[in-house]
Specification:
Helices cover 35% and strands 24% of the residues. It has 519 residues and is of the alpha+beta class. The protein folds into 3 domains: 190 residues, 3-Layer(bba) Sandwich (FAD/NAD(P)-binding domain), CATH 3.50.50; 196 residues, D-Amino Acid Oxidase, Chain A, domain 2 (2-Layer Sandwich); 106 residues, Helicase, Ruva Protein, domain 3. Helix 2 packs parallel to helix 7 and helix 12 packs across helix 15.
């Protein structure tokens, strides 16, 4: 997947794409894969990098949603559990089983949550990840060695899925490209083109060169998440907003705060939120908050009260109380919660995601959750095919392996997240001794991986690599800053950039990463 080759494919101004997708997060790349795998000529444009926004800032769970079960939203849980099973089957190199323990401190919690998790198992059926059961106090401590034992009665164990979110976005994008989709990052959708009062294409601006491209399309899909209303405004500036964004914040701690392989799930904190403490890449992620916000920054920042909430509740459930100095990284993401849309022809495909079709034929898909990205894509392409008067073709993504799919990725050691690509990366690392050198002694990331990311995964900036191709920014923000200069030097050589580009990249990354460190 090379950006220059992708740009070459959109130079013909007389060419008309069947489907153009705006937005390079999970929903957008999933939609591009859905469309391309049906044989539609597909283009995706993303104004920043793939998974720059919400899709790289999740709790890293592929799950049915225990909280939705509490709310009685059975249909959503059923859909998500089915999609969880499909993801494990199609992307086993990035999705795996994880045990969760619900610690019980009141006498009624064991039976109550035990019954709830049995229902969760029942809904999953044959796609279940494991059977839940009630644990004794001793077994709970065995699973969670640092759990607060004062008042602990026992626990309930259940099983769900975990994944690396931005890595999966990249692999889905590669899968779409392999099926003929044109995938372009750093390409802004600046204007919608209308013909006879109907959306007929886009005017896009290459963020690297400043060059404009006029793109013809039979139908345009808006899959921009929290920014969906901004694209809808390009179509009709009189529309009512349909997004009520919410912010979720996570902190990342050293593994010593929760040794072992099990996660903690607290289903009901003081203010009713669900709290997770999850092992991930030899770290612990604690989250999440749920705070309504009014602004939509590209780089959201945590609020002081959100950090206080996470630190206070982590200390409540773990014997080792984290201080701000223990936080290796803190990251925030915005959720595209749907609040309205009644003014238009809105087709609510499920209670969780919404497909909205404007009077001029702009198709918007928003809401939803990471786990159900494939079903969202299937639903929106069904609608788009009708609007674009495309030949009706069935979905094939339920049984389509994602790029690099491998059922035994552990054999690749530190490169396991690359799946079947790991063999080729190993060859690259063996090519020169310096390629196998680590970029930092705190993270198992090698210099040759930067070259791979530029050549095969469309990494264009230091941030692309350190934040999303590899997860250094989230795993240890300070260490990632110390890696930036070496990464910039390697990328500058690969991209044929000058010393000024390298200097600017390092400075920009330092400024960005400082926001992931609690002062």
């Amino acid at each position: 997947m090379k950006r220059e080759e992708m740009l070459d494919k959109i130079l013909d101004v007389n060419y008309t794409f069947d489907i153009v997708v705006i937005g390079g997060g999970a929903t957008g790349v999933g939609t591009a894969l859905e469309a391309a795998s049906r044989g539609y000529q597909t283009l995706l444009v993303e104004q920043s990098d793939f998974a720059k926004g919400t899709s790289s800032r999740s709790t890293k769970l592929v799950h049915g949603g225990v909280r939705y079960l509490q709310q009685g939203n059975i249909s959503l849980v059923l859909e998500a559990l089915k999609e969880r099973g499909i993801l494990l089957k199609n992307a086993p190199h990035l999705v795996h089983n994880l045990s969760f323990v619900v610690p019980n401190y009141d006498w009624w919690e064991g039976p109550f949550y035990g019954v709830g998790m049995k229902l969760y198992d029942l809904l999953a059926g044959k796609a279940g990840f494991g059977s839940s059961k009630i644990l004794s106090k001793e077994k709970t401590i065995e699973r969670l060695p640092t759990i607060e034992t004062d008042g602990l009665n026992g626990g309930v164990i259940y099983y769900d899925g975990q994944f690396d979110d931005s890595r999966l976005v990249i692999n889905i994008a590669q899968t779409a490209a392999e099926r003929g989709a044109v995938m372009v990052n750093y390409m802004q959708a600046a204007k919608l083109i209308h013909k006879n009062d109907m959306v007929a294409g886009l005017l896009t601006i290459d963020q690297e060169s400043g060059k404009e491209y006029e793109i013809n399309a039979k139908v345009v899909i808006n899959a921009t998440g929290v920014f969906a209303d901004q694209i809808r405004m390009l179509d009709d500036d009189t529309i009512s907003p349909m997004i009520s964004p919410s912010q979720g914040v996570h902190i990342v701690l050293d593994k010593s705060f929760l040794p072992g392989d099990s996660a903690i799930m607290v289903p009901h904190t003081d203010d009713g939120r669900v709290l997770f403490a999850i092992p991930w890449h030899d770290r612990i992620i604690v989250g999440t908050t749920d705070t309504p916000v009014n602004s939509l920054p590209i780089e959201p920042r945590p609020l002081p009260e959100e950090l206080d909430f996470l630190l206070t509740h982590t200390a409540r459930y773990l014997t080792k109380d984290p201080a701000t100095s223990d936080v290796l990284s803190v990251f925030a993401g915005l959720r595209p919660l749907v609040s309205s849309g009644e003014a238009e022809n809105t087709a609510a495909i499920s209670r969780d995601h919404t497909v909205c079709i404007s009077r001029s034929g702009l198709v918007t898909i928003t809401g939803g959750k990471w786990t159900t990205y494939r079903k969202m894509a299937e639903d929106v392409v069904d609608q788009a095919a009708v609007i674009g008067q495309l030949e009706s073709r069935p979905s094939v993504t339920e049984h389509l392996n994602i790029h690099a799919s491998h059922h035994h990725p552990d054999i690749f050691g530190e490169l396991k997240d690359y799946g079947s690509d790991a063999a080729a990366i190993k060859e690259l690392l063996d090519d020169k001794a310096e390629y196998a050198e680590y970029l930092h002694d705190k993270l198992p990331i090698r210099k040759g991986e930067v070259i791979w990311a530029v050549q095969n995964e469309m990494a264009r900036t230091v941030e692309d690599f350190l934040s999303r191709r590899r997860r250094a920014l989230l795993l240890d923000a300070r260490a990632s800053i110390e890696m930036a200069e070496d990464v910039a030097a390697i990328m500058a050589k690969e991209l044929n950039k000058n010393k000024m580009w390298k200097k600017d990249q390092v400075k920009a990354y330092q400024n960005l990463a400082e926001g992931y460190i609690i002062k």
